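Appendix B, Record 12. Input sequence as logged:
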Amino acid sequence: MKKLAYSIIALLLISTSCKNKEQPEQITEDTPHKLPNIIFIYADDLGYGDVKAYGATEIETPNIDKLANGGVLFTNGYASSATCSPSRYALLTGEYPWRNKDAKILPGTAPLLIDTTKATVPKMLKSKGYHTGIVGKWHLGLGSGNVNWNAHIAPGPNEVGFDYSYIMAATQDRVPTVYIKNGYVHNLDPSDPIEVSYKENFEGEPTGKDNPEMLKMKWHHGHNNSIVNGIPRIGFMKGGASAKWVDEDMADNFLQEAKNYIKEQKNNPFFLYYALQQPHVPRTPHPRFVGTSGMGPRGDVIIEADWCIGELLKTLEEEGILENTLIVFSSDNGPVLNDGYYDDAVEKLGNHKPSGALRGGKYSLFEAGTRVPFITYWEGTIAPKKSDAIVSQIDLFASLSALVDSDLNGSDSKNLLDEFLGKSNKGRDELILEATTRTAFRKEDWLLIPPYEGPEINKSVNIELGNLNKFQLYNLKEDIGQQNNLAETNTEKLKEMIASFGAIRGENFNSIQALELK
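Logged structural output:
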């Protein structure tokens, strides 16, 4: 591996304080011992079985496979949560999301979830001379709860460590349906101001519920408010016509922004958080990808996302920086088919298994909710391998901190740098997993799910949630599909797991909130 830690202080004439606002000294292509560029490629609702390198047989993902076959493919790689906002919070802060009572699926008008005084991955990297950027999905809240979308929107990504941000506020199915660049709505016409509400509609504005004749995509559950581009959304929006995105162009738009960022920062060490919107709903592939998977829009947008990753890799190669770039690929949570729209995700699934051999999916405490594709790639530095080490996205903070010789860290993050660089198979001994405020506990080969009230299956999305009125205990090494509950036959292991879980989680683990698909 390249000698990364040597001569860093001599090369970077900046303060190591994360609050330093000065720009780092530019590093030329001839500078020795360059810090590696770091890119997070973060898919949205991509399942363990949605990638060919992870066993998919019905879909082609050649560019993700290139990362997997040329880097470390983790078979026990976890998101912190089975839903998006909590996972993104943990990814950037290195803190379990259940420690923050507000870390749940956020509406488009939610205030910023991350405290601006908290250490974050981008802040840590900035303190070591990195330029930091985010392109894509944010969904971690903006402002203080009463956002004026027609003025500067803060606090947001720029206030928690990102020098550059080009984002959607929440999700593709939520209003406002606009891009936000460094705190300002992009292409907004001041004479057509934006108004947003998650409580009531604006007079005269059509909705998916009342105006089905205007829809090109029908809603199944929860997505029946304002209509944008013929697609009904969650929440109500008025104005901002010139700023509204075109859904089918979103992947290309974010990709171009990411490529531009790389080209502009290629002579600096940079951190890019490239947050894909696929395959989250609404699934709106560009026309050139329509029909490419044979599985309808969900399959098509996975093909589209894979292509975007390939184009990003080409850009790194063309700019001569691929071999000095550490890439981390993963997903915020597991898969879901029908997540609010009729888009043939169920009807055209065929033999494809988005969860692979795992049980459950998005929203679930079963393995498919949080065990996701997880790959690290660094051409010329990481040797290709498959690893069974237990690793979490939470651990990227401490590991990258060790990589760049920083003292900053997240409270729950573990330094697994050797695992991420393919030098060790040890990994974590234990890990708490979360799904809509409920928590489970992984320790070595075992998984404990405490008793929880609520439906065993959410019928709207047809996913087993992991709820049961008694403890569940699974040996994942022998039973990856979680078919054999050993809680009653292996009472000693059950007691051990409960004690270990309680030592971290505390006694209030059963204080939960009901799942709301909205």
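The chain has nine helices and 20 strands.
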